[in-house]
Amino acid sequence: MTIKLIRGALEGYQPTLVEQEAARRAAVALVLREDRGQPEVLLIHRADKDGDPWSGHMAFPGGRVDPDDQSLDHAARRETLEEVGVPLDGARTLGRIDDLQGRNAGQPNSMVISAFVYQLTEPPGDLVLQESEVQHAFYFPLWELANPDRHVRRAFHQTGDWEFPGIMVGDSDRHVVWGLTYRFIEVFYAAVARPFPSNWSDGPGNSSVFGG
Q1: Does position 120 have pLDDT exceeding 80, yes or no?
Q2: Per-residue confidence at 53, pLDDT binned at 50, 70, 90?
Q3: Which of 141, 169, 140, 174 is nearest to 156 (CA)?
Q4: Which residue range(s) make up the domain with 18?
């Protein structure tokens, strides 16, 4: 998988969008950079925080849309700058992938999350973390997300005895991508027409009931 392939695939991709005026909105950024010709994606380990449904999760940078945000894209860019100090004003927007819904999908208090894909065109500087929101951040090889050896099924503290699929991207106890972020990775791989060893459909119930 190359940046050129990704750009070409997303140029022709028509994302499935959720038009729900009553829903709360959030936006995340899939920030890609090239390292020796191979794309890497920026991942964050969210801070442990009371009241945050994604407390302690692995995620993409992003967050809730503010009233002052000019667009969903603006919210994704703003949150990325605030959380990890990466400015996306000069980045190339490669495209948008499907919207996803979090808990209580379809209800007035549900949240709809939009995702945008960006390519850094200049070498990124050091990550500057907003420690109240992010405890760790790093770039991870994009192709490794589809490595079956990294795919696990396990229960998380929000899921009781139910096990959900995840991807180990670091420490096996803390750095496991699951939930909404896992689903966005599935959507991304489908959008660029690459195989992905998904087993989400084997999970119990509606996968949208848990964040990630």
Answers
A1: yes
A2: low
A3: 174
A4: 3-146+178-195
Q: Would 163 be classed as within a structural domain?
A: no
Burial class for 134, CB neighbours closer than 10 Å (0-12, 13-18, 19+): buried
The total number of structural domains that make up the chain: 1
> What tokens appear for 15 in the block?
């994302």
Tally of CB atoms within 10 A around 98: 20
| Global confidence as pTM | 0.89
With respect to residue 153, please indicate whether it lies within any of the assigned structural domains. Answer: no
DSSP line for 36-65? TTEEEEEEEEEPP-TT-TTTT-EE-SEEEP
Q: Is residue 77 part of a domain?
A: yes
The pair of three-digit structure tokens given for residue 195, joined into one six-digit string: 């195989």
CATH number at residue 122: 3.90.79.10
Q: What average pLDDT does the segment 94-120 reach?
A: 85
